[in-house]
Amino acid sequence: MIDFSILPVYLTAVIALLLIPGPDMLLIASSSLSYGKKVGVFASLGNATSGLILTLLAAMGVSALIAMNPFALEVLRVLGGAYLLKMGWDCMRTQPADTPEVQNSQSLATTLYRRAVISNLLNPKALIFFVLFLPQFVSSQVTASSGEQMLVLGLLLNVLGLLFNLFLVTMIGSLGQPLLKNEKFRTNQHKFMGLIFFVLAIWLLASQVPSVN
C-alpha cells in the first residue's frame, strides 16, 4: 500500500523528527519523572491515541479542510492553550494528600492519558504536521489511493513514536525513582507538573500557526 522505494527516506525523516524535543516529549518525560513509569506509559499511549486520530483525519481529508481555515486553527490554538492552563491550575491546587500513592494510582495514570490525548488534539500544529508531512511521501507508483497511503504511513509513524516514547519513559522513569522516594519532591511533584502545563500553554499560545494556503 506504500512505495517501498521511499521507505528509507521516510524512516530517516521520522527518526529525525522523534529526536527533536517538542511539547509531547516534554509532557511524557515530565510525567515519567514526576509520577513514575506507569504514568509515563499512559501518557505515551495518550499521545499515540491522538496520533491515530489525527492520522485518520488526515487520510480522510478532514485535517486538510480544517488546516485551510485560519479561524478554525485559531480556535483550536486558544482552546488548547486554555485547556493546558486549566490543567496547570488544577495541578497547582492539588495537595499531596489529595492523590493516592503514585505507584498504585490507576486514576492518576488515566488522567495523564486523557490529558495527553486532548492537549495533542487541540494543538493546531500537530494537525498541520500530519497535513504537510504525510502527503510528501505519497507515491503515484502504487495502486493505493493517497488516503490509504497516508493511513499506512501515519500508522507506521505512530508505532515508531510509541516505541520511542516508551524507551524514553523507561530511561527517565528509572532516573526518577530516587525523586519519588524524596519527601520534599513528593510534596511538590504536582506543582512541578503544573509548571510543565503552564510552559506548554505559553508555548502553544505564543506560537504562530503556519498557513497551508
Automatic annotation (TrEMBL):
Q: Which UniProt keywords are listed? A: Cell membrane, Membrane, Transmembrane, Transmembrane helix
- PANTHER family attached here? ARGININE EXPORTER PROTEIN ARGO, LYSE FAMILY TRANSLOCATOR
Indicate what this protein is called per its UniProt record. Lysine transporter LysE
Gene Ontology cellular component annotations, sorted alphabetically = plasma membrane
Q: Which organism is it from?
A: Photobacterium ganghwense
Compartments it resides in = Cell membrane
Identify its membrane topology class: Multi-pass membrane protein
Q: Could you confirm whether the keyword Membrane appears in this record?
A: yes
Question: What's a Pfam family in this record?
Answer: LysE
Q: Name one GO molecular function term.
A: amino acid transmembrane transporter activity
Chain segments annotated as transmembrane:
6-27, 121-138, 150-172, 192-209
